[in-house]
Amino acid sequence: MKDFNRNEPYNDLPLLPPKAALETTKVLRKTIEASRALAKLNGMLINLPNPTLFLDTIHLQEAKASSEIENIITTNDELYKAIVADKKFDNPSTKEVISYKEALWQGLEAIDKKPFITTNLCIEIVQSIKKNTAGIRTTPGTSLKNPQGVTIYTPPTGEAVIREKLANLEKFVNEKDAIDPLIKMAIMPYQFEAIHPFTDGNGRTGRILLLLYLKIENLLDIPALYLSEYIIKNKTSYYSKLRHVTEKDAWEEWILYMLEMISFTANKGLNLLNQVNGFMQTFTDEVKETLPKVYSKDLIEILFKLPYTKRQYLIDAGLGTPKTVGNYLNELESAGYLTSEKVGKEKLYLNYGLMEILEKS
Fold first, then answer.
1. What is the pTM of this model?
2. 139 CB contacts (<8 Å, ≥6 apart)?
3. N- or C-end of the chain: fewer Cβ atoms within 10 A?
4. Last residue of a domain, one of 228, 247, 264
5. What's the number of domains the chain is made of?
6. Are residues 89 and 218 in the same domain?
7. Tens digits of pLDDT across the chain (361 residues)
8. Are residues 227 and 330 in the same domain?
């Protein structure tokens, strides 16, 4: 057992790399499995006719699940409506989820310009999630408690200490060395959660960093991975393994958990993409046959970008005048491909087949 007191600030949080054996036989086997699963997903994504087509949907699903881990709950239906409708939704949970998705996109743009994980990038991400000017935590007294109100961990305190730990994490993640990138990827969220650099938004920031890191390391060219659902389904295990690293130096079980998350999620993502792609092909063939004057490749792509769409999206894509595109959508609804709903002053059209696949996933 490590010399650790959960009620005192953990300013002695060990720096990276860990002193424990990382590349055990079990870990190396799991790393190969996770790497293959990612490669399959990556291959499927880059071979899609439009690889970025489903990104908005996947990122919103990830944002919804990542926020759910922090008990910020919304529904798929409310979330997609809020994105598409001009009407502003009052649900603070929906707003937080949309902010998470915006933070992920902001992070992707940042690493395109500078492909490194940095303290400044972490601050930019958390500010985007929280929509405030939050910086490194400076107020003492932060502690993490379980539902019964018992302290389970007290993170380091003092801005200088926190920045020192973050600088070490930054160096570890960006340094080119012999440690497999997937093992580094597994270590990164533990260390970030343990440092706990922000008053709020640490978990969500850490999960965005995972997606960005996979892209930086060319393990996933298009970061279409829906990681957080696995944590929700294995939440008890997630938190107990985090604690075991802190209290017992149990790195192997934590790394195996994270690698299993990557394998499971990549395989599930592959299955989801296959389902959506198959449905899109069937949908396309049927619309071509039954409504040849309505059909266009651009129109189908708009209907599959998000489950809901509206006339303005078709107008913006140059598919016709307001009257023409309105007729297209009405014909698609009459033929049973879409259903419509009034939201505020707007009429939204739902691709209910796509929504059904997402709800089941």
1. 0.90
2. 199
3. N
4. 264
5. 2
6. yes
7. 456 899 999 999 999 999 999 999 999 999 999 999 999 999 988 887 777 777 788 888 888 888 888 888 888 888 888 878 865 656 788 888 888 889 999 999 999 999 999 999 999 999 999 999 989 999 888 998 887 889 999 999 999 999 999 999 999 999 999 999 999 999 999 999 999 999 999 999 999 999 999 999 999 988 788 888 899 899 899 989 999 999 999 999 999 999 999 999 999 989 988 999 999 999 999 999 999 999 999 999 999 998 999 999 999 999 999 999 999 999 999 999 999 999 888 899 999 999 999 888 7
8. no
Q: What CATH number did the domain enclosing 167 receive?
A: 1.10.3290.10
Q: Which structural domain range is residue 340 located in?
A: 291-360
- Taking CA atoms, 177 is separated from 22, 32, 126, in Å, by 14, 18, 28
- How open is the CA angle 246-235-26, to the nearest 5 degrees? 60
**Tokens 């720096």 identify what position?**
15
Tell me the one-letter amino acid at 28.
Answer: L
Query: Closest Cα to residue 166, out of 208, 128, 197?
Result: 197
Establish if 269 belongs to a structural domain. Answer: no
Residue 143 covered by a domain: yes
Is 119 domain-assigned? Answer: yes
Tell me: do 209 and 332 sit in the same domain: no
CA dist., res. 319 & res. 296, Å (int)? 9
